[in-house]
Specification:
The protein is α+β, with helices and mostly antiparallel strands and about 425 residues long. The chain has 8 helices and 20 strands. Helices cover about 30% and strands about 30% of the residues. Strands 1, 2, 3, 4, 5, 6, 7 and 8 form an 8-stranded antiparallel beta sheet that branches. A 6-stranded antiparallel β-barrel has the order 9-10-11-14-13-12. Strands 15, 16, 17, 18, 19 and 20 form a 6-stranded antiparallel beta sheet that branches. The protein starts with a helix and ends with a strand.
Length: about 425
């Protein structure tokens, strides 16, 4: 018995020792796994602490800088006061707000000066009413021109000359001669008028009224304005527009020139157009004044598309004064039939041309077309006279009559790209 029991005991012990090497292998693996698990937790905690610390430092710096910038900006921005007052009951005893809600004295001075200048400019336009009239068709009591897209707009006229018998009035449209032209003063007094002449290129006409038809009281009020100059007017210059700038007679608008001396080709001439920051209104027309109250231009339909869609443009007086004088004197300027641009010395050198007129358009069946003129020809002479610009060319035409034959010298490029001079005979229309 004893031997058998001992054998069983030894066998059991032997069996336990048999698997001891396996237990020894399992125990270290579990231990390492636990160590790695707790190591990862510790690593995550360390990273979280480091990231939190860095983020806190960055947030503190950013917040500090933003606070400094805001404080600096608050110091530099002038306080603003609301001009919309709110009634407060006396019983509330609300204390006055501090300086943060008040406009500074310097800002108020600027605002008051701006208002003073605006009122001064408007008063110049208002005073010009003594030089203005409304041009009408006395039978229909409506605008006397019929082709405009805005038939309900008022058409302004301006006195430009006085003789012993007549007043000469420059109307802001050129049109078919109406059957019964009349002018109307601001008090409703109406006087018959006579169409004298017009120029569709610049959109102006001259009409006259007999002085005997105007009351003595009215004649004492009429003012013949002075003309100014549009030579070298800088960008930003203040202007006053009166007449009918928004389609209503005797209205006044003020603004600034935003682009001076824009070339606008017209038949056998070139005029200067000025762009303004005054918003365009359909049917607008009128007279443009400088700050001295002198006439420097006219708003007419031909210059509408030259200065864009939004702003009012006007034709400068310096480029059309001779045309107005010709209309007053009823001079008929012969017709040549071209459009072009001036070629000055700089342009001529850059493009290997000569000074003169670069032709951009030759009207069909015009004297120029029938004579053999071409687009891209450069007119350099008429007869023995040098031609340096379209205004010079226009003045040369004024010396001639319809039916006269003139010899025009042009610079023309041939097929081999060499320039050569050619003389062309043109019978003026």
């Amino acid at each position: 018995m004893y031997i058998i029991k001992k054998k069983e005991t030894n066998a059991k012990k032997h069996e336990e020792e048999k698997y001891n090497f396996i237990k020894e292998q399992i125990r270290p693996q579990r231990k390492r796994r636990v160590i790695r698990f707790f190591g990862k937790i510790l690593e995550s905690v360390v990273f979280a602490v480091i990231f939190g610390g860095v983020a806190g430092i960055v947030f503190w710096n950013v917040n500090n800088k933003l606070g400094s910038s805001a404080s600096s900006a608050d110091r530099n921005i002038p306080p603003v006061k609301s001009y919309i007052s709110t009634a407060v009951p006396e019983s509330t005893n609300v204390p006055e707000t501090g300086s943060s809600n008040e406009v500074s004295k310097g800002d108020m001075a600027v605002i008051e000066e701006h208002n003073r200048v605006a009122k001064k400019l408007s008063s110049i336009g208002d005073a010009f009413s003594e030089s203005l009239v409304r041009v009408i068709n006395k039978n229909k009591k409506s605008a006397w021109y019929q082709y405009s897209s805005s038939s309900n707009a008022d058409i302004s006229g301006m006195f430009i000359k006085e003789t012993s018998r007549y007043y000469y009035i420059l109307a802001s449209e050129s049109a078919l001669v109406p059957e019964a032209v009349a002018i109307e003063f601001d008090d409703g007094e109406t006087v018959d008028a006579e169409y004298l002449s017009g120029d569709s290129n610049i959109g102006l006409s001259v009409i006259i009224i007999a002085k005997k038809d105007v009351s003595g009281q009215r004649r004492r009020k009429i003012v013949i304005p002075q003309f100014g100059s549009t030579m070298s007017i800088p960008t930003g210059s203040n202007i006053i527009v009166t007449g009918a700038p928004n389609g209503i007679i005797y209205s006044v608008m003020t603004g600034n020139i935003i682009k001076p001396d824009i070339d606008m080709p017209v038949t056998d001439n070139l005029v200067s157009v000025f762009a303004t920051n005054i918003l365009y209104t359909e049917g607008c027309n009128g007279v443009v004044l400088n700050t001295k109250g002198r006439v420097i231009g006219f708003i007419t339909s031909p210059c509408e598309g030259v200065t864009g869609r939004n702003g009012i443009g006007f034709i400068g007086i310096s480029s059309i004064l001779d045309i107005i004088n010709s209309m007053v004197l009823e001079e008929e300027i012969p017709y040549f039939g071209i459009e072009g641009h001036d070629v000055d010395a700089k342009t001529a050198l850059a493009h290997k041309l000569e000074e003169g007129i670069y032709i951009t358009s030759v009207y069909p069946d015009s004297p120029a077309y029938l004579g053999g003129m071409r687009v891209a020809d450069v007119i350099t002479q008429v007869g023995s006279e040098e031609v340096s610009s379209l205004s010079v060319f226009h003045n040369i035409l004024k010396k001639h009559n319809k039916g006269d034959t003139i010899t025009v010298t042009v610079l023309r490029k041939s097929s081999d790209k060499n320039n050569h001079h050619k003389k062309i005979e043109v019978v003026l229309g």
